[in-house]
Amino acid sequence: MDKFPQSVIDMMNQGGSTVTCLPVQLDTESEQAWQSAFFFRLGGQESQRDIRLLKKATGPFAVGIETDIIEHANATVVLLRLQVFTQKENPLIGEVLLTPGGAETHYELLGLLGEQQTLTWFFSDQNYQVIHQQRQPLSKEWQEEFLALRSEAFKRDSIIRLAGKYSAQTAFAEVVSNYALR
User: Fold this and answer.
1) What is the reported pTM?
2) Rounded Cα–Cα distance for residues 54 and 56 (Å)
3) Nearest 10 degrees: Cα torsion 121, 140, 95, 93
4) Which of 136, 135, 124 is nearest to 1 (CA)?
5) Model confidence over 24-56: pLDDT tens digits?
6) What is the Cα 122 distance to its own chain's centre?
């Protein structure tokens, strides 16, 4: 069984995150293409049923993505709320926060999501061992949504920069401070 790439493990450990979106280079039809992909790390008692279901899966699970823009005084934070229906009544949920005006990678992630034809999801256990992965088509509507989010964040952040108030780190830290681990 494969593990997440070391760069993904390092990033998740440094940020203390259990869900992230990163640009990856995937081998698809004998050409290597960069794409944004989602990585979920599951652990603890509350995730045991999800881990079992993911390990036994023979096909993709239904997914849902909700997006929002958090208009902080110092920067725009893009929220991607992910739902994976491992259990219909109790989906696996994760949120990814991006500051496309402050982190070049975050800007790039939204751009890739706006161009790629498929979306790849990777799931691991507590030790980063891959227990399931799936790839699904990415509709034109979703591609347009990701590009619109990037554009809106960029425009808003440009105005904040002109006012001399821009700080992606401050905005990100204040948004994250509202989260609590279960």
Assistant:
1) 0.90
2) 5
3) -60
4) 124
5) 887 665 456 789 999 999 988 888 999 999 999
6) 11
